Amino acid sequence: MSKVFPRIGRRRALQGSAAGFVTFGLLLWWLLPLGEEPPTGTITFSTGTLRGVYQEYGERLRTELGRDMPGLKVKLVQSAGSYENVRRVATGQVDFTIAAADAVETYELNDGRGADRMRGVARLYDDYVQLVVGRDSGITSIAQLRHKRVAIGLPNSGVRLIANRVLGAAGIDPAKDITPVAEGIDTGPDQLRRGKIDAFFWSGGLPTKGLLDLAKKFSFTFVPIADSLVNKLHSEGEAALYYRATNMPESAYPSVQHGSTVATIAVSNLLMTRKDMDPRLTEWVTRTVIKSRDDIGAHVHSAQLVDLRTAIYTDPLPLQEGARRYYRSVKP
Q1: Is the pLDDT of residue 9 over 50?
Q2: Which of 214, 273, 294, 304 makes an SS bond possible with 189, Cβ 3.0 to 4.6 Å?
Q3: pTM for the whole structure
Q4: Exposed e or buried b for every residue in 240-256, given b needs 16+ CB within 10 A?
Q5: From CA 47, how far away is CA 84, in angstroms rounded?
Q6: Element at 212 (helix H, strand E)
Q7: Distance (Å, rounded) from C-alpha 293 to C-alpha 181?
Q8: Is the dihedral of CA 71, 76, 77, 82 positive or negative?
Q9: CA-angle at 98, arms to 54 and 102, nearest 5°
């Protein structure tokens, strides 16, 4: 049996339509919380070496930025790593980048050009120092690296900064007591596999694709870095204070760690820009970084650790005005 609905008067219909438009407008406001057209133009983003987390994160973030800001072109530029990234942003060569907090502090302590213009956007995830040796190498401590061929990272990389500090704290002069080799995560694993080096340092998010790939074809292990060495680094003050003792979880590289954690060092990564970057653009970038955590994290495990509650802590950098606006807008 059909049901007859009452006729609706024209005035009520118009009122209903108006209410619908209001509801629709409110819905759009929540979907686009910045309440305006997305920024357009071109920005440059300095990443890192191939097969490293900076590069992979940068590629995924570019995709997410393209979804939120279709008129914004993001140009990715590879780099040696953190220290070069910091210098590029500070001197205006690029607009955004990722860098480890110790590299940022080191650049400031060295009175790097444009250091006073550097600003933070978000604290992202932690880098872990990963000291890699062949499983049959017999090397189980940093002291045993003496007289060995050790890859300490590329010049101007965050890896090089940390490797030199760790070696020095262990009583090893990187210039005299080892044969230092300039290799990054893009080439170091293959050099180790081929026997060209005895060990290599890497500092990056967990897990790093370059090491996952190496585990498929070469048996290696990690050399632990004891918390006593971290305490010694802390006694040096300054940039070393950004290091903290931690354990690399057993889930990072299951086929390598076999259920065991590895004592090591962690340092925070920061998304950064400059003081003079358009605050409106920076606000949109910050929003995309936070809301795309799960989408990027499905491919870059480290990105799962991006958290709104901690993203605001970009020490040693003050927040960029656009980032500050975003965090204020979402504050409970």
Answers
A1: no
A2: 214
A3: 0.86
A4: bebbebbebeeebbeeb
A5: 10
A6: helix 209-215
A7: 35
A8: positive
A9: 110
